[in-house]
Amino acid sequence: MCLAVPGKVLEIHGSDPILRTARVSFGGIVKKVNLAYVPEVRVGDYVIVHVGFAISRLDEKEAMEVFSYLEEMDEIGRTSEGMYDNGAEPGNK
Question: Has this prediction a pTM greater than 0.70?
Answer without folding.
Answer: yes
